[in-house]
């Protein structure tokens, strides 16, 4: 990307050092890069609010991103996603790794930085500047999660997180999509959750790079593992392709977490070697660009002159104009405003 | 809307009689206008498939629309929406009124034209050309329900339906929005559904033009009616404004259905007199135009040259370009393609 690619006058269009960034914004960027929690929190709040101030800030952070290992963590309610997240945080912290957590699960106990179900253990992290925890609502974003999630990831990434855990409940379609754009996706299952793997929502099983059978000390875990193994063996997969391992954990007791981290490291190494790592990140960037462009266009629809739109709407209502013709005029007006 | 408003060469842009409609398309339009069920079904299938063929067809139908009384019917699962819909169909048919039914409730027994829960009663309608029943899935539409619903309504309307019942489960936001764009919105409640009106999803109660307490022969219906009455009296409402009545029904026995139709007729008369009828239809047309314009733009995003988009995505992935700058370029490319 050269300077010649960018149109004259669009100052924040290139990297590094976008002109026009205020002293306060520069300070915020520096503080976030240094991993100061309040700066990170302020940036993610800007992401949530879809603030206009975000644009130059994200431009300034762009060069600092791409380092974190983004780990998606999904599964039906009750499989132990939050407990597993807490166990992973602990294990990564023991290794001196800086961790970001982004929870999109509305029922997640990660709220306001506190893990309610596990409050005692989490209190140690409250004062640990090596852990950032943020819960985001999945509603109310003009661009949807597909805009907010990658931006929040990028903030954690620029703040020096080596690992970012993204916890989503494996129910909504957009939550599944987020988990699917991670570098490594963990699909959690647990015995006794009804009808075995049938209990997992369609679409969730396909995205698993690693299957985690949590609560593996309970009855039915062997049968569940057999079911998953059969499903994995049935999938059409080349000899060079990653074959999802099954890791047994009892997250509440910290069992199996080291093995899980080992499986994650393996997945990263193999994906980097095969090129699928970069390919998936390309896909993630493309998805994000598309979502952001659409959000911009959606905003422009809302900004259209109400009088003209009312005139079109009245013509459609009264049968004098068909809705496609009206939409074409609106589309052209939006295009002309870009 | 005059011919001068439309750009030269865009043949299907004006009404009536768009040039370029094939003989087969003209035949389909004529058959739909005559209320022939197969033609109506084919048009709604085209709506569901977001077919390109739809554009000239909808243009041809535009002048025939705007006559039907669109009645939204919403409420939590279990309140008796489908039974009430069936009872309304029967009562309207007794009055010689042609009825269309559009069900967006995934759990609705209206599927493939058959009402499972009430199959015996519905069999008489299967051969009744005065009733059109269609169930639509709420997923998979590029434009979402906000595009598909008004188009399907328009097909029923052009086919001569005097009344179109739109059944949505009062749970999803888009379902609530559809119910809210009806000419008259019925909010159904029933006693014994948990915590009285608290059981209704936030946002549903606000859109009711008429409240229906179904299963009114059961315990708790008086308490429920008192609750609704209190809620209605608390709402801020001018002396000229419509005050939602509460109608008691036992839909399974046909009780209260005549009163419900009377309340619907009252609502229509008063709304037409006050101008709110036309105002709401203006809002509906505006919402539809916006949704269709956005769907067009979304399609253009997908049609963008993959190579250029991949180049942008690679630059974003590698930190050489921030995602806003990339989205700006995509947005400009889309605008240039309109």
TrEMBL record, chains A, B:
Residues 1-22 are annotated as: Disordered. It comes from the Bacteria. CDD domains: MMAA-like. InterPro entries: GTPase/Isobutyryl-CoA_mutase, GTPase_ArgK, P-loop_NTPase. GO terms for molecular function: GTP binding; GTPase activity; kinase activity. Keywords: Chaperone, GTP-binding, Hydrolase, Kinase, Nucleotide-binding, Transferase. Belongs to the SIMIBI class G3E GTPase family. ArgK/MeaB subfamily. This is LAO/AO transport system kinase. It comes from Microlunatus soli.
């Amino acid at each position: 990307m050269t300077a010649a690619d960018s149109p004259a006058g669009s100052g924040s269009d290139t990297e590094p050092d976008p002109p026009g960034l205020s002293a306060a914004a520069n300070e915020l960027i520096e503080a976030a890069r240094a991993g100061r929690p309040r700066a990170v929190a302020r940036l993610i709040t800007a992401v949530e609010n879809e603030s206009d101030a975000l644009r130059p800030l994200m431009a300034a952070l762009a060069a600092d991103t791409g380092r974190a290992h983004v780990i998606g963590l999904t599964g039906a309610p009750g499989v132990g996603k939050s407990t597993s997240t807490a166990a992973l945080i602990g294990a990564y912290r023991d290794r001196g790794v800086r961790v970001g957590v982004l929870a999109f699960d509305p029922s997640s106990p990660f709220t306001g930085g506190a893990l309610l179900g596990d409050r005692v253990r989490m209190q140690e992290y409250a004062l640990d500047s090596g852990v950032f925890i943020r819960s985001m609502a999945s509603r109310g974003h003009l661009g949807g999660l597909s805009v907010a999630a990658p931006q929040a990831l990028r903030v954690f990434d620029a703040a020096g997180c080596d690992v970012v855990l993204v916890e989503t409940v494996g129910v909504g379609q957009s939550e599944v999509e987020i988990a699917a754009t991670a570098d490594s996706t963990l699909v959690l299952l647990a015995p006794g959750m009804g009808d075995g793997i049938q209990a997992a929502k369609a679409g969730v099983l396909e995205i698993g790079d690693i299957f985690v059978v949590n609560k593996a000390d309970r009855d039915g875990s062997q049968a569940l593992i057999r079911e998953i193994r059969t499903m994995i063996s049935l999938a059409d997969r080349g000899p060079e392709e990653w074959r999802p391992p099954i890791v047994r954990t009892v997250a509440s007791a910290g069992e199996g977490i080291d093995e899980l981290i080992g499986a994650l490291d393996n997945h990263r190494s193999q994906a980097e070697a095969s090129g699928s790592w970069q390919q998936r990140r390309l896909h993630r960037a493309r998805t994000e660009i598309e979502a952001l462009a659409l959000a911009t266009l959606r905003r422009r629809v809302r900004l259209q002159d109400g009088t003209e739109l009312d005139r079109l709407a009245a013509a459609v209502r009264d049968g004098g104009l068909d809705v496609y013709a009206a939409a074409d005029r609106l589309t052209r007006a939006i295009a002309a405003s870009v």
